Amino acid sequence: MLAAVWAQDQNGLIGKNQTLPWHLPNDLKYFKKMTVGKTIVMGRKTFEGMGSRPLPNRQTIILTRNVNYHHPGVKVMHSVEEILALSKQQEEPLMIVGGSTVYSDFLPYVDCLYRTVIEETFEGDAYFPTINWDDWQLVERTDGLVDEKNKYAHRFETYERK
Asked: In angstroms, what CA-CA distances link 127 with 20, 53, 100, 142, 161?
């Protein structure tokens, strides 16, 4: 099974220079809650944008076409097919965590979406791929708390494929 988790602004923006264009601690906590104890899959550029550090308490898979790429503490794979085969062997879903190209590659195979929508617009260069929402059913929506640390209105949404 595969699931995707991401945060976006009102226009679908997800990144700027391989990093998040906003600071929203509530979303970071949500991301941690959704991914701890699971295997996360990300592209090389996303991994490097996060400081080239594996996240604690998660197995990290880096998807890259560079067959010579290696990094301690992560597993490197080179094709969507390799990761799809692995997902069939796992009890827990593999969590697709970015970037744009990786989301595009796996969206046809994902069973569940965990999306944070930040009700603002930001500047950036990476967008989540277009989704046919007719294929998805909203099963949960929770408004995030706005406070001095979390300055932007936001909501957490869970969708399942119909």
From this structure: 11, 23, 6, 23, 21
Cα–Cα distances in angstroms (integers) from residue 129 to residues 68, 102, 105, 107, in the given order: 28, 10, 10, 8
Cα 30 to Cα 39: distance, rounded to the nearest angstrom: 16
Measured CA to CA in angstroms, residue 90 lies from 38, 100, 119, 129, 155 at distances of 10, 24, 35, 26, 29
Tens digits of residue pLDDT in 101-114: 999 999 999 999 99
Task: Indicate the pTM of the whole model.
Answer: 0.95
Q: Which residue has the tokens 């898979």?
A: 61
- Under 8 Å CB-to-CB from 30, ≥6 apart: which residues? 114, 116, 144, 156
Q: Please state, in angstroms and rounded to a whole number, the distance separating the CA atoms of residues 89 and 84.
A: 9
Give the domains, in start order, of the chain with CATH numbers: 2-161 (3.40.430.10)
120-162 pLDDT tens trace = 999 999 999 999 999 999 999 999 999 999 999 999 999 999 9
Residue 113: strand pairing partners: 4, 159
